[in-house]
Amino acid sequence: MKRFFAAFLLLFGLAGCAGRQASYTTDFFAMDTFMSVAVYGDNEDSAQQAAVACEQEVNALEPALSRTREDSDLYCLNHADGAVCQVSDETYAAIEAAVQYAELTGGAFDPTMAPLTDLWGINTENAHVPAQTEIDEALTHVGYGNIQLLGDNQVQLLNGAQLDLGGIGKGFATDAVSTLLAQQPEGAATGALVQLGGNIGAFGENPARDGGNWVVGVADPDNNAEFVATVEVRDASVVTSGDYERYFEQDGKRYHHIFDPKTGYPADTGLRSVSVIDQNSTRADALTTALFVMGLDDGLAFCAENNIAAVFITSDKQIYTSDAVSSVCTYTFLGAEKGYTDAQ
Amino acid sequence: MRSRLKWGDFVIIGVVLALAAALTAVLAAGTTGDRLYAEVWQDNQLVERVALTDGTDRTIDLDGHNVIVLSGKSARMESADCRDQVCVRTGTLTRAGQVAVCLPNRVVLKIVGETGEIDAIVS
Amino acid sequence: MKAKKLTLCGMLTALAVVLSLVERLFPLDAVVPVPGVKLGLANVVTLFALTRLSVRDALAVLLCRVALSSLLMGSVTAFLFSLFGGLLSLTVMWLLLHAEGRFCSLLGVSVAGAAAHNIGQIIAAVIWMQTGAVVAYLPVLLVMSVPLGLVTGLTCSVVLAHLQKIDFYV
After folding, report:
1. What is the ipTM of this complex?
2. What is the extent of the structural domain holding B66?
3. A73-164, which class in CATH?
4. What pLDDT sits at residue A133?
5. Mapping DSSP to helix (H, G, I), strand (E, B) and coil, where does residue B33 land?
6. Which of A298, A306, A312, A315 is nearest to A344 (CA)?
7. What are A's interface residues with B at a Cβ cutoff of 8 A?
8. Chain B residues near residue C146 by CB distance under 8 angstroms
């Protein structure tokens, strides 16, 4: 009888230990934005190590992707006056990705928009609507065709083009973090929620939910602490581009930071935001911008053609989802109370 | 038959039902007390961590740069001396997972607590 | 005498296992969505064993039943819930049986046992799932334990009355 009880007690002990999850969250500022990496694992020490490694990875990538730091490859490239520049592996890979997505989207995403954004001065003291002649002049330098990838990490910029990887930087960093998390020792990072600015990466198992998925809210463009829909994902990235976060107003009109490379003006397509759900965060990052510029109809057609999962929110409060959404995540529309319509 | 009801049976049934009722009452009172906290971070340092309850009413002034108002079970960035005002425009935070960030001043207001409807908001 | 007792214990265990299987037919998941939580029909066997045999025999039958039914259909959770529920139920019924006849009838004992069974299950669920949230289902289970306890108590008392007629003693 005693042995019997000992066996039961042992089972209880085991039962008590199982299912306990440790977590560690690190918050930090990098790439001009706020970032948060939460890692869940079997014990707190290894979770902390993994989270700190992610933070270091992002910080290490920053010089490779920044165009403002004077010690960065991009600064060097942008100030080379058309000369061939030698860049790091990371920078070269990021430029390659940027060019690839520019080609894919027919230039709707373009990494050479820097002269225009500088001209408009969004998020600076002197944000203003430039003169048309200035815009036309800036546009002559814009075009991803000006980027020459010469192999062996050598890059050349023609036509006075200026390269800005801000459009894919956070996605690129999210992918790097994802790779790093996958390399962690068994059990150190069983799940992670990575928030790099507007890029969210949800990896592995979420211990706080039945089924282990991560629920990401798609922000309400009118009040972005609230959400109008949720997507339930796992091992995927969710990225949103919206007109609401960076903008200025002049003469009662609102000018946001997502520019149409064709017109040189903020894209005016009747969209408030576009969210993309994709395993590749760099791709998602580039596509949100591109789809925003394309507008609803062309954007939906592009998604259908390329099997992209995207959620579009229009200025008349309609929410559209592309066909691929239902195959990559569980989408739930929740915007009825806030006046939104599920346009499906 | 040993099933002839005695007064004690009613006492037992009464006790079981009373226990159920009491538990329901306690649980109902408890659900309004879901633990939510507002955290204020400045330069990666935790400045304040305040439990949000129905009676919470506090204003946190970070040297005039950012003013944070905690009211009931909500928190918001009331004002900021920065240019972009993104944090102020973020609005009122009421759920775990919501964040208002003032980049220029490196101030973060976030709500943490029991897992709610969402894990994060993409914006 | 010993062989007779052993046989009876074996039969009771078999009966209890069958009842555990029958329980699965009730869609309890609809009310209490915690996998492994059961009604506790097998308590009738525990009650019978307590009245006709000894606490030790009842305990042996209970442990065998829990182990066997878990082996037959089970998850670790179901095993834990049954064990916790069964043990608490047995303890409560054993204590109350001392007062049976004066203070209360078998029905009261059975109701208390059913309630204890559910409390035990939920305690096990809290330990296992490490969340107090499952306690929310306890009120429903407690209310359900009243009619269920009355039925099992009545069954047991009818069976005992019949056994008395055929002069069955161990």
Report:
1. 0.81
2. 36-113
3. mainly alpha
4. 93
5. coil
6. A312
7. 27-29, 32-34, 36, 123-125, 193, 195, 198-200, 202, 206, 208-209, 214-219, 223-227, 230, 238-240, 242, 244-246, 273, 275
8. 13, 16-17
